[in-house]
From TrEMBL:
InterPro entries: Acyl/Acetyltrans_Enzymes, Acyl_CoA_acyltransferase, GNAT_dom, YitH/HolE_GNAT. It comes from Halotalea alkalilenta. Residues 10-137 form the N-acetyltransferase domain. GO terms for molecular function: acyltransferase activity, transferring groups other than amino-acyl groups. This is N-acetyltransferase domain-containing protein. Pfam families: Acetyltransf_18, Acetyltransf_7.
Amino acid sequence: MSSPDACSSLALRPLAAADLDAAHQLSLALAWPHRREDWAQLLRAGEGLALVDGERLIGTAFCLSQGRCASVGLVIVADDHQGRGLGRRLMQEALALAGTRTALLVATEAGAPLYRKLGFERVGDVHQHQGEALPQSSASLGTNGLRRLDEADRGALEELAAAGSGHGRVPVLGVALDAANAAVGIERDGRLVAFALRRPFGRGESIGPIYAENQGQAERLVDALLEDAAQRFMRLDAIDDAFDPDWLAARGLDRVDSPIRMVRGEAPSPRGATRQFGMITQAMG
């Protein structure tokens, strides 16, 4: 990769495992919740970019391949290097990694104008809910097809997620499955039709992704994952109006932010009855 500024010591190169401590410091400076391990998971799931000033890491971006689509995320420029067009350069390099695939991202209101100039359009919202979990009801595992999932279900989960998103989810889903400390699904006639994961993330744990045929199924999955998580900090990134915010608030998950879902290229559509209700993370989709 060539230098973004031939008159300076700035250069772009692939992000490496040796950069993770410095990358984590960049997100901490923005008060983002990501742990170092969350950064490491992104690096396992896709390609990262490092913008360096000499030996100092001052910017990052990720491109995560997902079949015919690619997710772009964690585009960060250190505060003392703002206003120099470096965020645009990182985005352009990440989009170059995406190639001809449809590019997906989650943007703040402040970042959206740049992404629109790069060809992105708004397709919806993400509602970030979080707080100390307050389980409300027994999920009745073992009834009406609701059950715990294990490694033997991995292939079926990959197929269901691809159908529910309208694009491949490997290797991103694999990273989430490897980190999950709980996984539940709903089975009908011997076939999985819905599932959700819970895993460590940020300040505590995160519920996602969530795939279901309808809101009732999605709620059953969330209740099942909250049942043994009382008073633990939990986060859920809901897609559009997938959940009633009051229903989530009653379970301790208050809405704290609503960033924008954006796409460049042909927007993916679910294949079949199952669709995505909650994200893995905003960067992973």
